[in-house]
Amino acid sequence: STSEPLKVMISGAPASGKGTQCELIVKKFGLVHISTGDLLRAEVSAGTEIGNKAKEFMNAGRLVPDEIVTAMVTARLSLEDAKKKGWLLDGYPRSAAQAESLEKLNIRPDIYVVLDVPDEILIDRCVGRRLDPLTGKIYHVKNFPPETEEIKARLVTRPDDTEEKVKARLEIYKKNVEAISSTYSNIMVKIDGNRQKEVVFEEIDSLLSQVQKDKIKMVKSE
Ligand code: AP5
Asked: What's residue 19's pLDDT?
């Protein structure tokens, strides 16, 4: 018998390294990465109705209304690949109402990972962040410069990555964090995200591997 696939939630302040860790987690565990930020940015660049609604909120560093984001996430979670391979939810839930929506649908992760990084470092990470629109890869002008001149030439900056907007995003994160973590307190693991990305990943890797082992054991003893 095979066990149920892994279900992981990753959370943390803006630029705490969620997207960066998700790249590494997906490579190793093959989970379906569901990032509400990425999904919303794709809607914005495709000029869809959702994108047009979401754009002003995102560019101001504010949360997009719950009903828009919740509909998007639950639709994505219900697709076959997420059920089969397991999922890695990044950037959702972000409010008490969003956490409640998942609870009502009986959607719960096996583990809730929170990346912990001091405020002053978050601001520097956001302001220096660059994205490759072709591959979706995340860079940083100082910490992770692009590998080639060709990549460097096509990198873009997010409109919400100015110092002022990062501060606004951080405020909103802090206002909501308590309500969300109380929902998942029994499966929450806080990780020091202010270390080299490989070191942070090592810790996440061993946590997820343990959770996976425990799930297999549970199936075997049934
Ligand atoms: P979203 O895209 O989720 O933004 P965020 O939470 O602010 O997170 P970021 O993407 O900024 O950072 P990250 O933690 O992924 O860090 P990264 O790995 O890139 O959301 C954007 C907007 O969409 C929201 O403001 C909101 O409007 C809307 N939205 C999304 N979800 C929503 C929801 N559920 N409800 C309502 N609205 C929603 O790393 C950052 C930088 O640091 C990079 O340059 C990276 O190279 C560097 N870095 C990473 N790790 C390290 C390390 N260990 N050491 C040094 N540098 C590092």
From this structure: 96
d(CA 31, CA 197): 19
The list of the chain residues with pLDDT below 50 reads: 1
pTM as predicted: 0.94
Q: CA nearest 113: which of 171, 31, 47?
A: 31
For residues 185 and 163, give the distance between their C-alpha atoms in angstroms, rounded to a whole number. 31
- Marked catalytic residue, from 7, 55, 130, 169: 169
Domains of the chain are 7-204 (3.40.50.300)
Instruction: Give dist(CA 183, CA 96) in Å, integer.
Output: 9
Catalytic residue among 18, 41, 130, 215: 18
What was the ipTM of the complex prediction? 0.97
Q: Evaluate whether 115 touches 191 at the Cβ level (below 8 Å).
A: yes
Residue 24 class from Cβ within 10 Å (0-12 exposed, 13-18 middle, 19+ buried)? middle
Give SS3 for 131. strand
| Residue to mutate (ligand 1; options 25, 64, 70; most atoms within 8 A of CB) | 64
Q: Does the active-site annotation cover 41?
A: no
Q: Are 160 and 169 in contact (CB under 8 A)?
A: yes
